[in-house]
Amino acid sequence: MAKYNISMSVIKRLPRYYRFLGLLLDQGITRISSRELSAKMGLTASQIRQDFNCFGGFGQQGYGYNVEQLRNEISKILGLSNNLGTIIIGAGNLGRAIATHMSFEERGFNLIGIFDKNEALAGEMVRGIPVRHIDGLDDFCRENHPSVAVLCIPGEHGTPIENQLVELGIKGFWNFSHSDIAARHPDLAVENVHLSDSLMTLCYQMNSRFGKNDR
Fold first, then answer.
1. pLDDT at 1 over 90
2. Contact 89, 64 (CB under 8 A)
């Protein structure tokens, strides 16, 4: 597939399009216009057309979009069939929840390993995958060649392990720690997930929309 120089704001909307189009297919809807899609998603029809035109455009004048075809094209753009080898670092509550409830295979990834420094967790099964002690990380990566790591560890422990992972060939991080990986490794693909930041953003919205006396 051709390489596109597309802004991240557009890229970050693609998963939402993909999800909504899946819901439309579940409802038996096979065709939709940008105007109809905009009403469902809370975006303008112009924005939707501009987003899709970044990749060549997928609609037909007077017809709209074929829902299944459009969803398949977005899947290709996102690379959801890439089956990227993935490991989780940290088998605590967060790591276990992500391993158990996230459908990695439907989103372009293949979870192949889970690691933790707690020796008591070694051998426990999570989603059918044995938790391995972190001491075995080097050998595992050299044998299985994962390209993505999910960091579910405290930020203060992130830097040494991230450097180790980079040396072992990891090219992308789904980062739940507070470690600023992108600043130290600007050439890598990093997606930061700060749950506390999201919660504080919700707090701001509550305060700004409703005020202390209206809640």
1. no
2. no
